[in-house]
Design a protein that fits this description.
Elements (H helix, E strand, L loop, with lengths): L5 H24 L20 E2 H14 L4 H27 L5 H10 L21 H5 L4 E3 L2 E3 L15 E2 H19 L10 E2 L1 H6 L4 H4 L14
Parallel strand pairs: 2-4
Antiparallel strand pairs: 1-5, 2-3
Helix pairs in contact: 3-4
Protein name: Zinc/iron-chelating domain-containing protein
Keywords: Coiled coil
Organism: Desulfosarcina widdelii
Length: 226
C-alpha cells in the first residue's frame, strides 16, 4: 500500500462505521420493513459506480485477501466490465444523438441488472466486510437529487414517511476523501478525485504510482559534462 493512503483509508473506515450504524438504527426501528438477510443478493445486481477512495480501498482489500481466488475473480470482472462498457456506451450515444434525455438514460441504467463479480456461487460477497457504501445502504430508504429510492423487496411503503439517508451528503463526503488522496499524493492528475468506476474496473485496475500521478521520487541522473 502507498503509505499516504493509509490515514485516508482510516477516515473512510470511520465513515463506513457511521453508515453501518445508520443502517442498523433504521433496521432496529423498522424491522418489518428491512428484509436484508443472508444470500439475498438483490443489491449485488445493481449498477453503480465507486468514488476514487472506494475504488482504491476495495482494490487493496482484493489484493490482500483474495489471492487464492484472484484468477477466477479477474475473469469474472473482465466479463462484467465489458458488459457495463457496452451499456454505458449505448447510453452515451443515445444522449449525444438527442434520442433520449440524460434523465431518461439514468432511469434506464438504474433498471439494468448486472451480477457483481464479487458475488460467489453461494450468493454471498467475497469481500463483504469491505463492501462499498452503496451496498451498505441498500435496503433502507435513500434519496438523491430529491428523488427517493428503496429496495423493491423491502416493506417500506410509498407515501409513508421513513428516516431517509441523503445520498448527496454521503457522496460529498466520499468525494472529499477522494480529493484528499489527490492532495496527499501531490498527484499530477488534479481531476483524479472526480473519477467514478464500477466495482469490476476497481478490481481490474493497477493503481500504481504512474496511474495515480505520483511525482517521481528520483530524477534521472544528469550526464557529467566532460
Amino acid at each position: 500500500m502507498i503509505a499516504e493512503l493509509e490515514p485516508i483509508f482510516k477516515k473512510y473506515e470511520a465513515f463506513v462505521k457511521q453508515i453501518d450504524e445508520v443502517f442498523e438504527k433504521v433496521r432496529s426501528d423498522h424491522p418489518e420493513c428491512v428484509k436484508c438477510e443472508l444470500e439475498c443478493a438483490d443489491c449485488c445486481h445493481a449498477i453503480f459506480d465507486l468514488t476514487l477512495v472506494e475504488a482504491l480501498y476495495i482494490n487493496q482489500k482484493f489484493i490482500d485477501t483474495l489471492e487464492d481466488k484472484k484468477t477466477n475473480l479477474l475473469e469474472k470482472a473482465n466479463r462484467v466490465d465489458r458488459k457495463l462498457h457496452q451499456l454505458k456506451r449505448k447510453a452515451f450515444k443515445a444522449v449525444e444523438n438527442g434520442e433520449k434525455s440524460e434523465e431518461q438514460v439514468l432511469l434506464e441504467m438504474a433498471a439494468e441488472r448486472s451480477r457483481c463479480p464479487l458475488l460467489n456461487k453461494e450468493n454471498c460477497c467475497d469481500l463483504y466486510a469491505f463492501r462499498p457504501v452503496t451496498c451498505r445502504l441498500y435496503g433502507i430508504p435513500t434519496a438523491i437529487g430529491g428523488h427517493g429510492h428503496t429496495c423493491g423487496l423491502s416493506g417500506f411503503k410509498e407515501g409513508t414517511s421513513y428516516p431517509t439517508v441523503n445520498l448527496d451528503a454521503v457522496n460529498a463526503k466520499l468525494s472529499a476523501l477522494s480529493q484528499e488522496i489527490v492532495t496527499a499524493l501531490n498527484s499530477t492528475h488534479v481531476k483524479m478525485g472526480d473519477i467514478l468506476m464500477p466495482v469490476s474496473m476497481a478490481i481490474l485496475t493497477i493503481f500504481d504510482e504512474k496511474y495515480l500521478g505520483v511525482p517521481s521520487a528520483q530524477k534521472e541522473p544528469k550526464e557529467e559534462q566532460k
